Amino acid sequence: MAPFHVVIPARYGSLRLPGKPLLEIGDRPMIQHVVERASASGADRVLVATDDARIAAAVHDPRGSAQALAILTDSALQSGTDRVAAVARQCGWTDETIVVNLQGDEPFMPAELIDQVARLLASRPEAAIATLMSPLDGVAALLDPNVVKVVAGSDGCALYFSRAPIPWVRDGVGPAPANRQLRHDGAMRHIGLYAYRVRALREITRLPPSRLEVIEKLEQLRALENGLRIVVAPCIVEPGPGIDTEADLAAARARLRKRVPGS
Q: pTM, whole model, 2 decimals?
């Protein structure tokens, strides 16, 4: 397997869950769970890119490395991608280095998927980015704008990402006046786990937000609009749930209690 690194962007500010990376799940903060998921993968190095010294102090390397785990990045950076690019620059990684961007609110992300997305990019030298997808579980998810959908071409490269229901099944529309979609044939949920070549990271972060990116509020559309190829594949195992809300946090704590009886 080609060597790769994992960078976990984690900022303190969150509108819905302030201080989210430091919220405890079980006996340790969320960000430490994410570090442990990344460290269970085949990554050569795992780093946390953060704007806050409290987050930097809260993480430790389960592999026992003496290297610093956290890198402080500029609080003015606008996105996780910007933080990952800043770490790549500070570490002096070459253009062809593969870096996986693992979000800091994914404490249940399987290590197998981290390896999969890195391996996928390594296998497609013409691609700049790799990401994953999984089948939608029903029409409700297809219609939910908080669930990002993706469609890919026969070459495995993404054609489009959207909050809208894509693909739209023309023959699956119910009667007027609702005209509601009743089928979700072949629809795929985008899993927000990315592998980048460092040269692509540099290019993306130099570009201004694109028109479709601004409309959909989906940063990956900047890459597509500027001609970068994003290869996408179905997840080899079920991805775990991320944490965006108080309800998600409660569910994560309950999930961990089930794994560790009596905790």
A: 0.93
